Every structure is written in structure tokens, then in C-alpha cells.
Amino acid sequence: MIGQLTGLLIEQNEADRCIIDVNGVGYVVFTSNRTLARLPRPPEVARVLIETIVREDAILLYGFAESYERDWFRLLTTVQGVGVRMALSILSTLSPDEISTAIMTADKATLTRAPGVGARLAVRILTELSGKVASLSDSIATVVVPEGKDKGSRPQTAQTLSDALLALEGLGFRRVESQPVVAKVIKRLTDEGKGSELDLVIRESLRELAR
């Protein structure tokens, strides 16, 4: 199994793949648009993390610029109906933080922005991954349900996030631009021990959005 490739990037397809030359062997690596945008221009040395998919008729390599995106690729492909190409399509449309936030807030509309993801598949992703998001430590979802809350209820952080997004929408901000900002603000405030009160989250988010 191949876990990483470091070599000369000799070709870069704007759609979904690149070719990396490692000691004279050219490896075709399928990637998201996000990873392609972070790679250097050919011909330069590039490093990508690899997820190797072995099939009866082929060995396919999927490359990622960061481990967090690879972790989400692995998680998405556990959902029934989400194959490797669909997972890359989702990651090309939405950042890992946006996917995490959408799942935490049960935001089906955000997931359907990805080509090929209809309402039914979006619901399936929300349902099957809602309990798994917390395993990705870099996500806002690392905030667990406080003691005393029912296990079946959503974390308070997710409710604050959802309420803050609605408030910002009322102020004229598009969800696509405010969602990652609010998620980062909540995570920062939590890490700093300041809590995640709604009014504080909104004020801090407005300050970030105004920059």
C-alpha cells in the first residue's frame, strides 16, 4: 500500500488528477480541486498523502495535501452511496470545516451544493456521520455534549452555531461565507475557556467578517 508520494509534479489536470514522477515512475493521482490548488506548478517537487484503493481491475491512488482532508475522504466513503469519486466531488465543493459544520447543524442544503448530492443522499450523510464527526480532532465537532444532556441531543455548540448563522443571515451575510468564520470563532472561544454564548459568538464573528 502507498501512503505518501514525494516526487516531480510533471502534469496537472485541472479537473481531478495529476501525475507525480518518483524515480522515473509516473503515478496518476486523483485529487480534489482543493488539493490541486495547493500543489506547485509543474515541474516542481510535490508531496501528497495517498489513499490507495485496490480493485479487481486496478490500483487507484487518491492524493491529499493535508491529513484532515484525507480523513474526511475516508469518512465520507463509509456512507452508503458515496463512492470515491463522489467523496472527491464533495471535498472539491466544500472544505472539511464546512462539511463538519453542516453535519453538526443538520444543514442538508449545504451538502446538496456538491454535484451529485441530492436531498436523499444528503440526509443519509447527515444520519450516518452525525455520530462520527467528533472523531476528527481538528473540527469544531470536538466539543462534546456536556454532562447531563441526553445522548440523543445535539451538542450545545451545534445549536449556538446554527443560531449564530441564522442571526448573521438576518444581517445580510451569506451562509457560505459566515459558516467557516463562526465555526472557527466558537472553537477559538472554547479553546480559550471563554465559552460559546450566542451574543459573544455573534460579536466575534462580526469582527472577523468585517476584516
Automatic annotation (TrEMBL):
GO terms, biological process: DNA recombination; DNA repair
Subcellular location per the Swiss-Prot or TrEMBL entry: Cytoplasm
Region (Domain II): 66-143
GO function term, MF aspect, one: ATP binding
Pfam families: HHH_5, RuvA_C, RuvA_N
Subunit-level organization: Homotetramer. Forms an RuvA(8)-RuvB(12)-Holliday junction (HJ) complex. HJ DNA is sandwiched between 2 RuvA tetramers; dsDNA enters through RuvA and exits via RuvB. An RuvB hexamer assembles on each DNA strand where it exits the tetramer. Each RuvB hexamer is contacted by two RuvA subunits (via domain III) on 2 adjacent RuvB subunits; this complex drives branch migration. In the full resolvosome a probable DNA-RuvA(4)-RuvB(12)-RuvC(2) complex forms which resolves the HJ.
Protein name: Holliday junction branch migration complex subunit RuvA
Organism, as annotated: Commensalibacter intestini A911
